[in-house]
Every structure is written in C-alpha cells, then in structure tokens.
Design a protein that fits this description.
Elements (H helix, E strand, L loop, with lengths): L9 H4 L8 E2 L9 E2 L1 H11 L8 E11 L2 H8 L4 E4 L5 E2 L1 H7 L2 E4 L9 H12 L35 E2 L2 E2 L2 H4 L3 H17 L1
Parallel strand pairs: 2-5, 3-4, 3-6
Antiparallel strand pairs: 1-2, 7-8
Helix pairs in contact: 3-5
The structure holds S-adenosylmethionine.
The site of S-adenosylmethionine (SAM) has 20 residues, from β3 and β5.
C-alpha cells in the first residue's frame, strides 16, 4: 500500500485579496492570527473531490502530546490533514469546529507547524505496511507493546572489541534465552531513567 503526501499553501486558496491569510487578534496583543475562513477554504479545496478527511490535526503546543500510541492510532486512518500555524497561532474556531484533534510534538514552541507536521508524518508513515525494509523491525522497538512501552535495548555489531570497548558477553554467547532476558532488562532500565 502506498502513501501520498500533498502540500497546501493557505495563500493559494485564501478567499481574501492579496494573499492575506491572517489578521490582528481581537482583544489586542502582539502577533497575527491565522483566520478560520482561510483554513476552511484550504480544507474545502484540498478535499473537494474526496470529501473531508477522517482526522484533521491542528498542530499546537497546547495540544495532546504526540507519542507512539497516537502514531499507531493515526496510521490506521485512510487520510490525515495536518494544519500548521505560524506567528501567534490559529483562530480558536479552527480547533473547535474544523479540527478533530489538537496535537503537540513537545512542550516547547516552534516558529511554525511545518516541522511538527513532518515529525508526525514520518512517525506515522513508517508504520504503514511495506514502509520498512524488514517486516519485523517495527515490532520490537522503542515504546512498542513488545517492550511494554519502554525504550529499546542497546544494539551492538562488529567489531566485538574496539579501542578496548567490549560488546557485552551475553550477546556473543549464542544463548537466545539469555539474550532475550538481557535485552528486556536493559530496556526496563532505560525506562526507569
Ligand atoms: C510560534 S507558534 C505559536 C505559539 C502560541 N502562541 C502559543 O503560545 O502556544 C506558531 C505555530 O507553530 C506550531 N507549533 C509551535 N510549537 C509547536 C509544538 N510544540 N507542537 C506542534 N505545533 C507547534 C503551531 O502550529 C503554532 O500555531
């Protein structure tokens, strides 16, 4: 199954003249606010043929924290729209009436939603069937169910000794059960840090 990324510029579909997309905030204050009619026009234009997407994510620092569980949930959706803001943010009516979710990529403020959208797109797309070369690789990785939601254990490869830095003996033992237990223990250790 393939995936398709489409990019939209609010200025190309804005109903306002001169490519205007934002306006001064009611109540005063610094910065400009992305208008609700502009976002609505962009969504209508993007989905005029296929209808509304299943989930419309507004990217905002005040949203639900994006994590592996949300990535897994979103990977099941046939279509996602990621709404990026700039400057002071987005008219609250977008969150109330157009978006299905408000999502944050972390407790810090970016200049715009574009990088947040790329982070989410990457984490979601790699969960789609056929996205990764080795079918088993996403099963036992950081935050997966297989590891009880904990970070992944450490990996090592050749050489077995480099500048005196040795690979843990258990990984060279050929004892699969010991290796399995050692990995689970290291994973849990990382979760406790
Ligand atoms: C400068 S920020 C606006 C910050 C807003 N005034 C606030 O205090 O929450 C501009 C845009 O960047 C995006 N953005 C910034 N930080 C983000 C984060 N942590 N997660 C998701 N989007 C973010 C949002 O789309 C936001 O509308």
């Amino acid at each position: 199954m393939g995936s398709e990324l489409r990019f939209f510029d609010y200025r190309e579909t804005t109903p306002l003249t001169g490519g205007q997309v934002d306006d001064a905030p009611y109540g005063g204050g610094a910065g400009m606010v992305l208008r609700v009619d502009v976002v609505d026009a962009a969504l209508r234009s993007a989905y005029e043929e296929s209808g509304r997407p299943g989930r419309v994510l507004l990217l905002t620092p005040s949203g639900r924290q994006f994590d592996e569980a949300l990535a897994t949930e979103l990977a099941l959706e046939p279509d996602l729209a990621l709404l990026c803001g700039r400057y002071e943010g987005v008219d609250e009516r977008v969150r109330e009436h157009l978006a299905t979710d408000a999502v944050s990529v972390g407790p810090y403020v970016l200049s715009g939603g574009e990088l947040a959208a790329m982070v989410i797109a990457d984490a979601v797309i790699r969960k789609l069937p056929g996205a990764l070369g080795h079918a088993a690789s996403p099963v036992e990785e950081s935050f997966s169910e297989a590891l009880g939601g904990a970070p992944e254990y450490p990996h090592y490869t050749r050489p077995a000794i480099y500048r005196g830095w040795e690979v843990p003996e258990v990984l060279l033992s050929g004892d699969h059960e010991r290796v399995r237990r050692w990995r689970l223990e290291r994973s849990r250790e990382r979760a406790d840090r």
